[in-house]
Design brief:
single chain; mainly alpha; two-stranded antiparallel ribbon; globular
Length: 295
């Protein structure tokens, strides 16, 4: 089926924005590692039959080593970091911090793939990281310093996404999105499941937590990653990860509606700066006479 970015980008943003709600509900009961292992396992069980139905299994042949790297960088590591961070951060703030992904993607492309980086983009990176500071300013100023490490964890997850998107472009651009989505979830499950056995919860998780992991695995992972890899194949990694422009909006809205979260002026100001920084970094907004920085 042909890719329809105008439909698939906002749909993907809405789905991934909702994922932070399910993480906020399920991670405390399962624990971040087991919760994310279950997420990738459910996604794998959902995707594997689709791969065989569409006869895409041969597309994975000879690529498992590279797919394992993508599964680690684009799924296993960032998922656990997000799950752990949501124990301390609101779903809305976590979604906003995830919005730094395109900035990291552009920086990785500059240093690794030798892509050019305009002065607008450099300014955007600075503004974006300044936005991260203001986003968490009220919490830090109120001596809630325990949010600093979770904030850095989310940004490390965003860096992993940026590396993975560029790695996919270089080494796995010719693989079908469905096969790549399934392969990455299988790889993440192989990595996370053995580790999760050492972090089993003391009590059986509630029905809401179980529902969260199932929904997260099928919709927010299985379906979402098919959409994401379709967009990477059609638009390239930089444009595909521009989906994170919309994720903070949906993350904040879903958090307010379903978790009764509140937002402060600092949150709005920080989120605005982050989105402005991402827009400058990815070229959505360009300054006049902006010179290119080559590497």
């Amino acid at each position: 089926m042909p890719t329809k970015p105008l439909i698939e980008l906002p749909l993907l943003a809405a789905i991934w924005g909702a994922s932070f709600i399910f993480m906020k509900i399920g991670s405390p009961e399962f624990g971040p590692i087991l919760f994310m292992a279950m997420r990738t396992l459910v996604a794998s069980l959902f995707l594997i039959p689709l791969v065989f139905i569409t006869k895409n299994q041969s597309a994975l042949s000879g690529y498992w080593g590279k797919i394992f790297i993508v599964g680690s960088l684009n799924t296993a590591i960032p998922f656990v970091l997000f799950g752990w961070a949501t124990l301390s951060l609101s779903a809305g703030n976590t979604a906003v911090l995830n919005g730094t992904t395109p900035m990291f993607g552009a920086l990785v492309a500059y240093f690794w793939l030798k892509d050019t980086l305009s002065m607008s983009a450099v300014l955007g990176v600075c503004i974006g990281f300044l936005g991260v500071y203001f986003l968490m300013f009220d919490k830090i100023s109120n001596d809630n310093t325990h949010v600093i490490i979770p904030t850095l964890a989310v940004m490390l997850a965003a860096l992993c996404y940026g590396i993975s998107a560029n790695y996919t472009k270089v080494y796995l651009g010719g693989i079908s999105p469905l096969a790549l989505a399934a392969g990455s979830q299988i790889s993440a499950s192989v990595l996370l499941l053995p580790i999760s056995m050492f972090f089993l919860p003391e009590t059986i998780p509630s029905s809401s937590a179980i529902f969260s992991v199932i929904t997260l695995g099928i919709v927010c992972t299985g379906v979402a990653y098919i959409l994401f890899f379709r967009l990477i194949a059609a638009l390239g990694p930089t444009k595909a990860i521009s989906v994170t422009y919309l994720i903070p909006v949906f993350g904040i809205v879903w958090g307010i509606i379903f978790l009764n979260e509140t937002i402060s002026y600092w949150t709005v100001f920080g989120a605005t700066l982050i989105l402005l920084g991402v827009a400058l970094t990815t070229g959505v907004i360009k300054l006049k006479s902006s010179k290119a920085l080559t590497n």
